[in-house]
User: Which sequence fits this backbone?
């Protein structure tokens, strides 16, 4: 008899965790597992990538009240006699207004947001909150399941969350899963009383799929100068303002650099202004979210990840699979992904160091080729990680 599993996620917008979930779905043995997916919102660039074997459960119409303006939401709730939900939206609105830390805001709002989400009728062998905060909270409060698992896709200490708010939920999890050894160490140090619950399951990536998709012809072809590519959300975590400043240093030094950032996010306007201020409109490009980013990576001379923190970056693994010379800033888990001076460079987290590392690779093609050659000797597929999940279930 098949085991019945539920995955819970906010949506399938651009992001490493969302991409990791789709890769996991493409790897599951559906002859042994029946899979449901609960999304708070049925949206995102990866939504149409959900395999047909996965049953997407209905979303709650009331969730939309927390995306509306407070006035519109409350008026509509009162018209429909949803007094309790109107009160919850008012209280959530106060938190939205007063809590400036986005992660803690999401944590605190859950108490009221949860009023808009139903408890699921079905029972499961396992419920998996596939991202920190709301998906984990939903799995605990709204689902009947024999085993409950929660994923943390990043360095917990860098997320800005209130650990005290998470402890009651982590107590009810059977397994607390993260995506790299470094992130696992952070969780065990932050929550030593949950040490036995912590497991590491690396994100699933398929080299065969990445090579196939990278061969797709696109309009992107760079023929002159040095092409740099970075991938990630346009937000503080990814450090793209450091990249823009580093690009400015390189251009001022006379280097013909074209730097492409694939991704979308809330900081677009701020980054566009910085590009304009630095006079880099012909050198630094925010190309938006691409359903297939691999041709960009394939065409790159250098791949750069200027992040302030990461869990286990899927984009870095993809660049490694495509044998690209890679430069990372020295975030806490960088050494989990690159061996410095062997198959890439790890530089300090500032624009000057980033530009120096890039300049070194621009000038030394032999070093670029050496890094690419070392990467070509390794196999980066992680399809077998699914076995770890099966074991926990």
Assistant:
């Amino acid at each position: 008899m098949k085991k019945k599993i539920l995955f819970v996620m906010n949506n399938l917008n651009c992001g490493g965790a969302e991409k990791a979930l789709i890769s996991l779905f493409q790897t599951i043995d559906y002859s042994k597992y029946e899979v449901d997916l609960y999304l708070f919102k049925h949206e995102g660039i990866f939504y149409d990538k959900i395999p047909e074997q996965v049953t997407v459960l209905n979303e709650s119409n009331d969730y939309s009240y927390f995306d509306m303006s407070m006035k519109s939401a409350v008026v509509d709730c009162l018209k429909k006699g949803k007094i309790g939900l109107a009160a919850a939206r008012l209280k959530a609105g106060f938190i939205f207004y007063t809590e400036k830390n986005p992660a803690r805001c999401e944590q605190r709002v859950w108490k009221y947001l949860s009023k808009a989400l139903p408890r699921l009728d079905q029972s499961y062998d396992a419920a998996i909150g596939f991202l920190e905060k709301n998906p984990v909270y939903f799995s605990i409060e709204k689902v009947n399941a024999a085993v409950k698992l929660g994923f943390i896709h990043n360095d917990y200490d860098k997320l800005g969350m209130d650990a005290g708010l998470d402890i009651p939920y982590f107590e009810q999890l059977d397994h607390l899963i993260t995506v790299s050894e470094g992130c696992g160490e952070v969780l065990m140090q932050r929550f030593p009383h949950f040490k036995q619950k912590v497991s590491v399951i690396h994100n699933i990536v398929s080299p065969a799929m990445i090579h196939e998709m990278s061969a797709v012809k696109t309009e992107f072809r760079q023929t002159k100068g040095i092409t740099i590519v970075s991938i990630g959300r346009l937000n503080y975590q990814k450090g793209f303002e450091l990249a823009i400043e580093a690009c400015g240093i390189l251009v001022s030094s006379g280097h013909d650099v074209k730097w492409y950032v694939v991704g979308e996010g809330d900081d677009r306007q701020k980054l566009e202004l910085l590009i304009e201020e630095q006079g880099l409109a012909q050198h630094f490009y925010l190309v938006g979210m691409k359903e297939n980013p691999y041709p960009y990576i394939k065409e790159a001379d250098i791949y750069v990840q200027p992040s302030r923190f990461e869990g286990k970056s899927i984009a870095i693994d993809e660049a490694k699979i495509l044998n690209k010379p890679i430069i990372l800033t020295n975030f806490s888990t960088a050494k989990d992904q690159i061996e410095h001076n062997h198959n890439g460079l790890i530089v300090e987290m500032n624009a000057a160091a980033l530009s120096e590392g890039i300049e070194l690779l621009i000038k030394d093609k032999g070093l670029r080729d050496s890094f690419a050659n070392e990467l070509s000797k390794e196999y980066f597929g992680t399809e077998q990680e699914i076995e770890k999940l099966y074991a926990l279930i």
Summary: The chain is about 40% helix and 15% strand. The mean pLDDT is 93.
